[in-house]
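Exercise 7. Given the encoded structure of a 136-residue chain, write a plausible sequence.
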């Protein structure tokens, strides 16, 4: 008899271990919810990243356009009509950028050249300034 009781206890212990193996439905639901939350967070970060990347591309394009226009103006001789005092503007319609420049003679024998590039989707204007010295 003692052997039989011992055998029954062991059999019962095996059954209780077997009943507790694996995952419960609640554990699977919680794990799925955590995974879904993580995927949604990564998805929203991806959307933000794409927007910021597009904005950075626009800023880069505007900077390149401003630098290009400034270099063109700096290449003219000091007394060229293109460097007369005043404001000028050029629309780069296909890309949506507006390039404007202002030339002033605030300091004797120098020209202050300021180039501004604007775009509807830029949060700020891109402004580059340079001084062109006159002949000695």
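Solution.
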């Amino acid at each position: 008899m003692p052997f039989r009781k011992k055998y029954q206890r062991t059999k019962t212990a095996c059954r209780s271990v077997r009943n507790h193996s694996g995952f419960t439905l609640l554990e699977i639901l919680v794990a799925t919810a955590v995974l879904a939350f993580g995927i949604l967070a990564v998805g929203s970060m991806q959307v933000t990243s794409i927007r910021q990347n597009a904005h950075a591309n626009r800023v880069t394009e505007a900077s390149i356009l401003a630098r290009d226009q400034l270099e063109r103006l700096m290449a003219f001789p000091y007394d060229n009509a293109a460097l007369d005092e005043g404001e000028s503007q050029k629309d780069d319609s296909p890309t949506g950028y507006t390039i404007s420049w202002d030339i002033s003679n605030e300091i004797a024998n120098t020209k202050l050249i300021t180039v501004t590039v604007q775009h509807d989707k830029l949060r700020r204007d891109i402004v580059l300034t340079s001084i062109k010295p006159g002949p000695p």
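Remark. The helical segments are 2-19, 25-75. Students should compare their own answers with the one above.
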